[in-house]
C-alpha cells in the first residue's frame, strides 16, 4: 500500500493495486514498454521505478521503458522499433507492451491499424488500457473508445472485472497477442487505483512459467489451424488448467432459470451486475447477467451457450460516448449490435429473446440502485417494492464487513492520515482491507474522500461506501458542500473536527440539513478539537479519535510503527477525553424549518483528479517603482540585462501590423455592425496558412483606463516591475497605464473567486460579508445575475465595494489578464502576400442599468483608423483544405463564419488560374436579410461566374414568411452533396454558432443513408460521420 513495491515482493497474498499488477505482467514478459501515461494517472510509475533500478525481467534483462506524450502519431515510435533494420530478430517472439489510458487510443489508431495489417511479421504487441478520460469536468471510465477501435481494426479486446483477476487477464491478453494485436482494458478511475488484498498473485517466475507453458501449447499443429476464435478458446482453457481458475469468454451469474438477463462489459459493470444479480436471485427474482470477458474476437456460439435457455428478454448495457448519443435513437452501442445479431440468428432455441438496449454515457456512475433499476427495465415483474430502500441490495454483510469514510480538504496535514490508518488496519493478517481515494478539485478548492473497508473475507466492492459505520469530517465547512451523512448507515457515528467550537455554538456551525439527518436517523455525533492537542497534530487527532470510536480494540502500537509518530500518538491518546467528546443530539433538530428551505448538497462527489489540487501558484508581486528604475535599465543595459520586447507580457510570438482598410459591410442604419478590417504586414515577417486564426491583442479604451486610474488614486506614469511569464528571474518594466491598457482585464467579467479574493481587503464588515457570500454557494443566484444580466466588470465591483482597496500589485494578482481575441482569417496569403483580412461583428448590448456596452476587442478594432499599429499573433486551426486540389469542399458558414471560406475560395481560384484541376466548391451561407447581411456577395457571385464556386446556397431566414435556414438549402441540393461529399470523397466544413450543428449533421447523415440505399450497402450514418471526423472530412469550428 503506497509506493511501488519491489518487483520480487509481488507474490502470494499481498496488498496491491490493479495497475501495479498489470505493470508487473508488462515488465516481466516484455522486451520494451511504450508508455503514454498522463502525469497523474500513474500508469507506469512502477515500471519506471523497476527500470531505473535495472531489475531483470523474466528473460533475464531489464525491460526498456520509454515514456511518450499523447499526440498525433502516437505509436509511431513503437512501430519504428518493431520494423527497424536494427531490431534483434531473436526477440521477435518476445511481447512488446503499451501502457495507455483510453484518452490515448484515438491517437494510437493509425499505428494500431498499420500494426494489424503487418502483424504476421511483427512481434506480439499488447496494449494495457486504463479506461479513463476527462468529460464534463470529471474523470470518466471510457470503454466505448476501445470497443469501437477493436471492432473497426479487428483487435483482440479483453476486460478485467476486478483487481483480483487483473494479473490473470493481463497475462491472457499477452498470450492472445501472440497471434492477434490485443487490448486489455480495466477501470482506470476507481478500481485501477484501489489498494486491496489479492490472494493468488503470481510472482515473476510463476508468471513466466505459465506464459511459456501455454504459449508452447499454441505450437500444436491442431491449434495452429484454428481460426482466432478457436485459438482464444484454447488459450483460455489452457490458462484455467494452469492456474486452477474457471474463467470464460462469457460468464453467467444469477437465477438458475432466469427470464430476464442483462449483458455487461467493463470492470465496474461486470462486478456490480453479477453481485446484484446474485442478491436478487436469492430473493427469488428470475434475473441474471452475462458478463463479457472477451469482446473480440466475439464467439457467438459461446455467448449462446452461456445464455440460459429460459431467457425471454435480454438487456444490453451499452456504453456510448455522450448524452447526445444516449438520446439519439439511431445511435447504438457496439455491444448491442453484436448481441442483437447473435440473438437474431440463434438456432439453439425455439424463439429468440427480445433484445433491449440500455444506453449510458461515459460519465454515468453505476451504483447498486441504478443497476437494480436496469434489471427492472427488462424484468417482467417488480424486483424491488421500494427502489429507495437499498436493504434487499445489501451486497456486503454488516456482520463481517466494516466501512469507514474520511472527508477532508486535500491540503491539510490530516488529508493523508486516513490512508495511513488503512495501512495500519491491514497489518492484521486475519482481515482484508480495501482503501480507495477520490479527489475532487472543484469543491472547497480541493476535497479528498477516503473509503476504507475491512472484512474477514475477500472484498470486491467497486463503488463508494454508502453505509459507513463511522465517518470522519476534517473540516466543518465540508458539511455545507457535501451530504456526508448520505453515506452513513442509520445509527452510525460521525466525527467532526471543529477546533475551538463549543457545544452551544454547534447549532450555528452545523448546517440545518445535517442536524436534521443526525436526529432523524439516530446518528451519534462526536466533536474532535485538535486545538487542545497543540499545533500540527491534526493527523494524530484524526487517527486516535477514529480508533477510539470505530476500533477501540485495535493495538495503537501498529499505527505508531507505520505512522512513525509513537510519542505524539501516546500524548494525544492520553488527552483524548479532552480532545474528543460525544454531543447529545437534541430531538428538536429533527424538526428544524431551516432544513426544508436550505438547498440540499450533493450526496457524492465525482473524481476530477488522482492527486490533490496544486494550489502553489506563487506569483512574485508586482512592485511599483519610479522613473529612475527604468532609466537605469535603459542607460546601463548590460549591467541590468535590459532588452527591448514587443508586448513582453505576452508569452506568444507577436507581430506589429498596421491597419490598411477598415470598412463596414452592413448599412449604418442596420443594428448589426459587421466590418471588414485588413492589415498591412509590412516587414513584420508574419506568415499564416489557410484556415488559421489571427489573435488580436486588443487594448482597453484609453479614456476608460484614465478614468479608472483617477478613481483608484494611481499615478499612470509610475513604473511597475513584474516577472516575465516565461522566466520569473527576468523582470519586465511597464507603466501603470500600460499595464491597465494592455495587460490587466480590468473591464472584463470577474469570476466567483474574485469576490472571495477581494473580500480579504475589505475593511467594512458588511462589504466583506457580501463579497464572501457572492463568492460562496449561497450567492450563486445573485452571482449569475451579475454575470449574465448586469454584466458587471472588475472595475464595477471595485467601485461598488470601496472599502476593498487592494494595492496595485495585489490588484494585478487577483484580476485576470487580458486574453487575445481570435478571429478566423478571411484571406489567403498566396493571393494577398502582404496583407491579412478579418471579418468581425461588433458585440454590443444594453445592461440592466441602461448602459450601452460593447465587447472590448470589437470596440477596439472597429475604431481603428488606417495606419494604426496593432499587436497580433497567429493560432493554428482545424480548418484546413483537403490534401488534394481535386477533392470537393462543402462549406457552411453563418454570419462571420464565412470568414475562413473566403480564404478557401481565394485559394481554389488561384489554383484554377494556374491551370490546376480543382474539385467542386459548394458554399452555403446563412444570415437574416440579404439586403443588409449579404457580406462579400459580389465576390461570391463573381467566383461562381468564373466557375470556381459550383453551387451557392443562400439562406436568408427572415426575407420570406417562412423561415429558411442553411440546412434547408442543403437538403434542397442533396444530390449535389451526395456527389461531392460521398462519391468524390469531399470534405465538409461548418463555421459559426453551435445551434445548427444537429440539423446540418442530419442532412449529411441523410445523404449517407440515401447513397447507401442506392448502392445496396448497410451503413450506420452516425458511425460514418464519426469516421469522417477522423479522416478530417467533417470539420466543425463553432462557438
TrEMBL record:
SUPFAM superfamilies named among the record's database cross-references: Ferredoxin reductase-like, C-terminal NADP-linked domain, Pyruvate-ferredoxin oxidoreductase, PFOR, domain III, Riboflavin synthase domain-like, TK C-terminal domain-like
GO molecular function, one term: sulfite reductase (NADPH) activity
Signal peptide residues on this chain, from the entry's feature table: none
Names of the cofactor(s): FMN; FAD
Pathway connected to this protein: Sulfur metabolism; hydrogen sulfide biosynthesis; hydrogen sulfide from sulfite (NADPH route): step 1/1
CC annotations in GO: cytosol; sulfite reductase complex (NADPH)
Keywords assigned by UniProt, alphabetized: 4Fe-4S, Electron transport, FAD, Flavoprotein, FMN, Iron, Iron-sulfur, Metal-binding, NADP, Oxidoreductase, Transport
Enzyme Commission designation: 1.8.1.2
Pfam families for this protein: FAD_binding_1, NAD_binding_1, POR
KW Electron transport (keyword) present: yes
Domain of life: Eukaryota
InterPro entries (alphabetical): CysJ-like_FAD-binding (IPR003097), FAD-bd_FR_type (IPR017927), Flavoprot_Pyr_Nucl_cyt_Rdtase (IPR001709), FNR_nucleotide-bd (IPR039261), NADPH_Cyt_P450_Rdtase_alpha (IPR023173), OxRdtase_FAD/NAD-bd (IPR001433), Pyrv/ketoisovalerate_OxRed_cat (IPR019752), Pyrv_flavodox_OxRed_cen (IPR002869)
One BP annotation, GO: sulfate assimilation
Catalytic activity: hydrogen sulfide + 3 NADP(+) + 3 H2O = sulfite + 3 NADPH + 4 H(+); 2 oxidized [cytochrome P450] + NADPH = 2 reduced [cytochrome P450] + NADP(+) + H(+)
Domain FAD-binding FR-type residues, every copy: 652-882
Protein task: This enzyme catalyzes the 6-electron reduction of sulfite to sulfide. This is one of several activities required for the biosynthesis of L-cysteine from sulfate.
Protein name: assimilatory sulfite reductase (NADPH)
Amino acid at each position: 500500500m503506497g509506493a511501488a513495491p519491489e518487483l520480487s515482493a509481488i507474490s502470494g497474498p499481498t496488498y496491491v493495486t490493479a495497475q501495479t499488477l498489470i505493470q508487473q505482467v508488462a515488465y516481466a514478459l516484455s522486451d520494451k514498454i511504450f508508455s503514454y501515461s498522463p502525469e497523474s494517472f500513474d500508469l507506469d510509475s512502477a515500471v519506471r521505478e523497476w527500470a531505473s533500478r535495472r531489475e531483470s525481467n523474466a528473460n533475464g534483462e531489464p525491460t526498456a521503458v520509454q515514456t511518450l506524450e499523447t499526440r498525433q502519431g502516437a505509436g509511431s515510435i513503437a512501430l519504428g522499433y518493431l520494423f527497424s533494420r536494427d531490431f534483434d530478430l531473436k526477440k521477435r517472439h518476445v511481447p512488446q507492451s503499451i501502457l495507455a489510458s483510453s484518452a490515448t487510443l484515438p491517437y494510437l489508431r493509425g499505428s494500431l491499424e498499420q500494426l494489424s495489417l503487418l502483424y504476421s511479421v511483427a512481434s506480439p504487441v499488447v496494449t494495457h488500457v486504463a479506461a479513463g478520460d476527462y468529460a464534463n469536468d470529471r474523470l470518466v471510465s471510457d470503454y466505448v473508445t476501445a470497443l469501437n477501435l477493436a471492432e473497426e481494426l479487428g483487435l483482440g479486446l479483453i476486460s478485467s472485472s476486478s483487481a483480483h483477476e487483473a494479473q490473470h487477464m493481463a497475462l491472457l491478453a499477452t498470450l492472445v497477442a501472440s497471434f492477434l494485436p490485443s487490448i486489455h482494458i480495466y477501470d482506470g478511475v476507481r478500481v485501477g487505483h484501489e489498494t486491496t488484498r489479492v490472494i493468488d498473485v503470481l510472482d515473476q517466475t510463476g508468471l513466466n512459467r505459465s506464459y511459456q507453458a501455454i504459449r508452447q501449447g499454441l505450437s500444436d499443429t491442431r491449434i495452429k489451424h484454428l481460426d482466432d476464435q478457436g485459438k482464444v478458446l484454447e488459450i483460455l482453457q489452457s490458462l484455467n488448467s494452469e492456474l486452477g481458475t474457471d474463467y470464460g469468454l462469457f460468464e453467467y451469474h444469477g437465477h438458475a432459470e432466469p427470464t430476464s438477463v442483462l449483458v455487461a462489459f467493463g470492470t465496474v459493470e461486470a462486478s456490480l451486475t453479477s453481485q446484484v444479480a446474485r442478491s436478487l436471485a436469492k430473493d427469488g427474482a428470475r434475473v441474471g447477467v452475462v458478463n463479457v470477458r472477451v469482446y473480440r474476437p466475439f464467439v457467438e456460439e459461446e455467448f449462446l451457450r452461456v445464455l440460459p435457455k429460459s431467457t425471454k428478454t435480454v438487456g444490453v448495457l451499452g456504453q456510448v460516448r455522450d448524452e447526445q448519443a444516449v438520446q439519439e435513437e439511431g445511435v447504438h452501442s457496439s455491444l448491442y449490435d453484436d448481441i442483437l445479431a447473435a440473438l437474431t440468428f440463434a438456432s439453439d432455441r425455439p424463439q429468440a429473446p427480445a433484445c433491449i438496449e440500455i444506453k449510458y454515457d461515459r460519465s454515468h456512475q453505476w451504483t447498486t440502485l441504478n443497476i437494480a433499476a436496469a434489471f427492472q427495465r427488462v424484468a417482467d415483474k417488480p424486483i424491488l417494492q421500494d427502489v429507495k430502500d437499498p436493504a434487499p441490495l445489501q451486497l456486503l454483510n454488516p456482520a463481517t464487513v466494516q466501512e469507514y469514510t474520511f472527508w477532508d480538504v486535500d491540503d491539510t496535514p490530516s488529508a493523508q492520515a486516513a490512508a495511513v490508518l488503512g495501512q495500519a488496519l491491514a497489518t492484521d493478517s486475519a482481515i482484508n482491507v480495501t482503501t480507495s481515494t477520490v479527489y475532487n478539485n472543484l469543491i472547497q478548492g480541493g476535497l479528498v474522500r477516503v473509503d476504507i473497508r475491512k472484512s474477514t473475507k475477500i472484498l470486491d466492492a467497486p463503488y463508494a461506501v454508502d453505509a459507513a459505520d463511522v465517518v470522519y469530517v476534517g473540516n466543518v465547512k465540508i458539511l455545507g458542500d457535501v451530504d456526508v451523512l448520505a453515506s452513513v448507515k442509520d445509527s452510525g457515528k460521525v466525527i467532526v473536527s471543529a477546533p475551538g467550537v463549543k457545544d452551544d455554538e454547534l447549532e450555528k456551525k452545523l448546517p440545518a440539513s445535517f442536524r436534521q439527518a443526525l436526529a432523524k436517523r439516530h446518528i451519534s455525533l462526536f466533536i474532535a478539537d485538535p486545538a487542545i492537542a497543540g499545533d500540527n497534530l491534526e493527523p494524530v487527532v484524526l487517527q486516535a479519535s477514529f480508533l477510539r470510536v470505530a476500533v477501540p480494540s485495535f493495538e495503537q502500537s501498529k499505527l505508531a510503527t507505520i505512522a512513525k509518530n509513537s510519542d505524539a500518538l501516546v500524548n494525544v491518546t492520553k488527552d483524548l477525553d479532552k480532545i474528543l467528546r460525544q454531543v447529545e443530539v437534541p430531538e428538536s433538530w429533527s424538526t428544524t424549518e431551516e432544513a426544508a428551505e436550505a438547498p440540499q448538497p450533493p450526496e457524492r462527489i465525482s473524481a476530477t483528479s488522482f492527486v490533490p489540487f496544486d494550489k502553489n501558484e506563487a506569483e512574485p508581486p508586482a512592485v511599483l517603482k519610479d522613473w529612475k528604475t527604468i532609466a537605469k535599465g535603459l542607460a546601463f543595459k548590460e549591467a541590468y540585462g535590459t532588452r527591448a520586447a514587443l508586448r513582453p507580457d505576452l508569452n506568444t510570438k507577436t507581430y506589429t501590423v498596421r491597419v490598411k482598410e477598415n470598412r463596414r459591410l452592413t448599412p449604418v442604419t442596420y443594428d448589426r455592425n459587421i466590418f471588414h478590417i485588413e492589415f498591412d504586414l509590412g516587414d513584420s515577417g508574419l506568415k499564416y496558412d489557410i484556415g488559421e486564426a489571427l489573435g488580436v491583442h486588443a487594448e482597453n479604451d484609453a479614456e476608460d483606463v484614465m478614468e479608472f486610474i483617477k478613481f483608484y488614486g494611481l499615478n499612470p506614469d509610475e513604473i511597475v516591475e513584474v516577472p516575465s511569464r516565461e522566466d520569473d528571474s527576468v523582470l519586465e518594466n511597464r507603466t501603470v497605464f500600460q499595464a491597465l491598457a494592455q495587460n490587466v482585464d480590468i473591464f472584463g467579467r470577474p469570476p466567483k473567486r474574485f469576490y472571495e479574493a477581494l473580500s480579504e481587503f475589505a475593511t467594512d464588515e458588511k462589504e466583506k460579508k457580501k463579497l464572501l457570500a457572492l463568492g460562496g454557494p449561497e450567492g450563486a443566484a445573485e452571482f449569475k445575475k451579475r454575470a449574465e444580466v448586469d454584466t458587471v466588470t472588475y472595475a464595477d465591483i471595485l467601485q461598488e465595494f470601496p472599502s476593498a482597496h487592494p494595492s496595485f500589485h495585489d490588484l494585478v494578482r487577483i484580476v485576470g489578464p487580458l486574453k487575445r481575441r481570435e478571429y478566423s482569417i478571411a484571406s489567403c496569403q498566396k493571393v494577398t502576400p502582404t496583407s491579412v483580412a478579418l471579418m468581425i461583428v461588433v458585440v454590443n448590448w444594453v445592461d440592466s442599468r441602461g448602459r450601452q456596452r460593447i465587447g472590448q476587442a470589437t470596440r477596439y478594432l472597429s475604431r481603428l483608423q488606417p495606419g494604426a499599429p496593432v499587436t497580433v499573433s497567429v493560432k493554428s486551426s482545424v480548418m484546413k483544405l483537403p490534401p488534394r486540389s481535386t477533392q470537393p469542399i462543402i462549406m457552411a458558414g453563418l454570419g462571420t463564419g464565412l470568414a475562413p471560406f473566403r480564404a478557401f475560395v481565394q485559394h481554389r481560384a488561384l489554383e484554377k488560374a494556374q491551370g490546376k484541376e480543382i474539385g467542386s466548391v459548394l458554399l452555403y451561407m446563412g444570415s437574416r436579410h440579404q439586403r443588409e447581411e449579404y457580406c462579400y456577395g459580389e465576390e461570391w457571385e463573381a467566383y461562381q461566374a468564373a466557375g470556381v464556386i459550383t453551387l451557392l446556397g443562400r439562406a436568408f431566414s427572415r426575407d420570406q414568411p417562412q423561415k429558411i435556414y442553411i440546412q434547408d438549402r442543403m437538403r434542397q441540393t442533396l444530390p449535389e452533396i451526395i456527389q461531392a461529399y460521398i462519391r468524390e470523397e469531399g470534405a465538409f466544413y461548418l463555421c459559426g454558432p453551435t445551434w445548427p450543428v444537429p440539423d446540418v449533421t442530419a442532412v449529411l447523415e441523410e445523404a449517407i443513408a440515401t447513397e447507401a440505399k442506392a448502392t445496396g450497402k448497410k451503413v450506420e450514418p452516425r458511425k460514418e460521420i464519426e469516421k469522417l471526423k477522423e479522416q478530417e472530412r467533417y470539420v466543425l469550428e463553432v462557438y
